[in-house]
Each structure stands twice: as C-alpha cells, then as structure tokens.
Specification:
It contains nine helices and six strands. By secondary structure, it is an alpha/beta fold. It has two domains: 179 residues, Peptidoglycan recognition protein-like (Lysozyme-like, 3-Layer(aba) Sandwich), CATH 3.40.80; 54 residues, no CATH class. Strand 3 and strand 4 form a beta hairpin. The structure holds zinc ion.
C-alpha cells in the first residue's frame, strides 16, 4: 500500500496557467498524463509557475512519490479545452461570462500523471492517482471520471487510450479501493448499519434475500416486526453481495 502524500503548493497568478477564474460546481474528474519524459510533480510546478506563450495547466500532478496540488480546487485550470467545438461530453459544456464558449475546464478537475523517462507511467503513480480521486470523491462527490481523450479526442493519457483495458482496470480499481476504504472506515460502517434501521431498507433487504433464495418466512417476520438487525445483516451477507447499493 502506498501513501497519498498530498501536498499543496500553488503556483502564482499567471494568465497562461492560473487565471484565477472561479470553478463552477465540479461535474467530473479528468485524468491526463504529462507526456514529459521523467518530469516530476515539482518539475511541473516550476514549469507552470513560469509558463508564458501558451495556455496550459492542471490542478494536481501525481508522480511516484507524491501528489502536488498546484492550482486551488475552486479555480479553473487549462487542461481539457483544446477542441474548438467544445467538449464531446455534453454535461461538461459549461460557460461563464468570464470564460465563454462551452468549456470543460469550467466544471472539471484535471489530474496529471507524471511519465517516467522510458515513457511509461509508474504503477505507484497510477495507484496514487486512484487515491487522489478517492480523496476528491469525499470533497466533491462520486462523479464521473474521464480520460482527456473522452472529452476532446486528444490521445491522453496515451497508455490508457492505446490499451483501453488499462483504463477499464483503473476505473474498477478506483471503485474497488473505495469499497475497501468503506470497510476500513468505522464511520462509514456505522452509517451503513444505520441505514439498515429504516423500514424501507429492511424491506429491500428481505425482499432481495427472498428473491435470492432465502425462506419466505422472513417476509412474515418482517411484517410482524420481529426481525432483528443481526437477522438483516446475516441475510444481507448471505444473499446480497453488496448491501451498499
Ligand atoms: Zn491531457
């Protein structure tokens, strides 16, 4: 298990990389890669802090050692708007008086995976990017995750475009790790148990369990109100794979 090592060090205001435009409510997370051989998160901080002559940036840079937030998460970064006709994902066609045009940069957070010298993305970098998205889930909610490629057609992150199985696995791992995190978090476990107490929740569990093969008499117990939390947890564990959905 690797550590998140999330650092915050914002670049200065810069019209090419940090225009200080307000970010609209976040609708998606966009994953990129730097396409820059051997460039670390710190290298990219320095690069975007001094950027001039072209518009580019992203909120968070992830390398094999840490994650570095270089643009505040309530501001726009220039990471997914090189397509003149606007984003391919309709829900990301945002617009604002200060930044008109229908633009995914206005309502998404851009995360860059740093590339190794040999052009690959280190497994720790990928793993850490998953942790970053899980952190963002807690801050902004469980939102769609897109490749830059999905939004504008740019081949970014290239390894996730040339081999879409890697991308599918990445998405599954975000979910998988998220599930593991839920089990390891006492507060979330308590929340899940609390939801078992609602009447509707009890009905859902019993009906699903009976449908999956549990005895009909559980329905009677539910009706009589003699069913216990232990019964419900037992039914859920035995007949329902995921009680949290
Ligand atoms: Zn990109």
């Amino acid at each position: 298990m690797i550590a998140l090592n999330y650092e915050v060090k914002h670049i200065g205001k810069n019209k090419f990389s940090r225009p200080c435009y307000k970010l609209l409510p976040v609708k998606a997370y966009v994953v990129h890669y730097t396409a820059n051989h051997g460039g670390t998160a710190d290298n990219h901080f320095a690069y975007f802090n001094n950027l001039s002559g072209r518009y580019a940036s992203a909120h968070i840079f992830v390398d094999r050692h840490k994650a570095l937030e270089i643009i505040p998460l309530n501001e726009v970064a220039f990471h997914a708007n090189e397509r003149k006709v606007g984003p391919l994902i309709h829900s990301l066609k945002a617009t604002a008086a200060y930044y008109p045009g229908g633009n995914a940069n206005l309502n998404s957070i851009g995360i860059e995976m740093c590339m190794e010298k040999d052009g690959t993305i280190h497994p720790d970098t990928i793993k850490r990017t998953i942790l970053v998205i899980q952190k963002l889930y807690k801050q902004f909610g469980v939102l769609p995750i897109y490749r830059h490629y999905d939004i504008t057609g740019k081949k970014c992150p290239l390894p996730f475009v040339t081999d879409s199985k890697q991308w599918t696995k990445f998405l599954a791992d975000v979910q998988k790790e998220e599930d593991e995190m839920q089990f390891s978090s006492p507060s979330l476990k308590a929340e899940t148990e609390l939801t078992l107490n609602s009447k509707a929740r009890r009905e859902i569990i019993v009906n699903a369990a009976v449908k999956a093969g549990a005895h009909e008499s559980w329905r009677q117990k539910l009706k009589e109100g003699t069913i216990t939390d232990a019964d419900l947890l037992g039914l859920a564990a035995k007949y329902i794979v995921d009680t949290n959905k």
